[in-house]
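We emphasize that the prediction below concerns an isolated chain of 171 residues; any contacts that depend on oligomerization or on bound cofactors are therefore not represented. The input was used exactly as deposited, without trimming of termini.
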Amino acid sequence: MISRILRVLVGLGLIGYGVYSGNAWFYLGVLPLVTALINWCLFESKVGGCDPSSGCCSSEVTTTASSANKESVVTGIKKATTPNFTGTSFSAQKPRKIEILGIGCAKCITLAKTVQEVVDTLDGNFEVVKVEDIEAIMAYQVMSTPGLVIDGEVKSTGKLLSKEEVRALLV
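Result of the prediction step, given as a token string:
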């Protein structure tokens, strides 16, 4: 994340100096700016400074839903499904859907891990989905990520929740 911010600052600085000095070579500042915007850096991926947990050069399995349906982009988060047993009979209960809204920033990744840890400790049937599609996030009218949606209702936006806060929302 820091290297991404640094690339933006270097890119803007080079472009600004190019405008100030009239030297066209400094317009190459577009390169670090673009690599920061697309969240990819050739140098970091080759040298090994890339940290997948920060969202940079992400190696997570990603499946994109069809754009015709404008469904959300789902990232591979394991689903915890524990059937609810009442006595000797099996209660087929629809899973509670938990959506983490975010484009892959550090806060979004941390919230996803926190939610998954809490879900793993609870008895119940849960489906955890990470939504990265901007249009799907905007459909919930969330302007600040990370966002937490439980069963279609926005419960939190723009802040990290502790395990206790997540547990309170799920119980």
